[in-house]
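Quick one, T. Sequence first:
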Amino acid sequence: MQCHEIDYEILGSEMQIVEVELDPEETVIAEAGAMNYMEEDIEFAARMDDGSEPGRGIMGKLLGAGKRVLTGESIFMTHFTNRGTKKRRVAFAAPYPGKILAVDMAKIGGKLICQKDAFLCAALGTKLGIAFQRKLGVGFFGGEGFILQKIEGDGMVFLHACGHVVKKQLKGETLRVDTGCLVAFTHGIEYDIQMAGNLKSMFFGGEGFFLATLRGHGTVLLQSLPFSRLADRVLAHAPSAGGSSKGEGSVLGGLANMFEK
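Structure tokens:
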């Protein structure tokens, strides 16, 4: 497998953008809707395949699109190609605050397993698929879906994570994390789901019923704030339909809402 060799620059701190520089006839693939801006001479086309297998027939493309749907991604992927004679740039942005992670697949063995929705863009030649977990516990209680996304290739891949990113190197140790905090892990890491503790801890500990257990030799990427947790907090503090948000979070605000009702 030989991916296009693209150059890049990550801009910003918390609301980041990755700016990819394309030589003439170089291509980068991205999830639909991820593009932020692009320079002249760059053409884009929506395709059902990732371009890693040029001779793939229509049935193969449909199968690939179906796999992406299972991982929560769009049916179509967008291919951005520089058709000019000079270097041009195209930029991609994450859909929520956090960090963009640049991963050189050639340096990690060419294989990466990540959460659904973590993929942002990659050099043409990168293969996107699904990674079925063998143990049923992962599927029923993982909290992030039975199917994880598998990325293969030898070029640059860009992921996005919510909040701060922590990199853990496992050398045979075991790491237990909240299922939503897991972003990606390399080959050599086993992934399973185990109960968080006794019944009292499960119901009143506030950490959920199950935790992800990772063990083996490799790299694990974690995010400090899963987007699902952020969305739950926002919804919990949002005013109800037709309600007022005046004085939100204060005692006076609560009394005002009572009198308004």
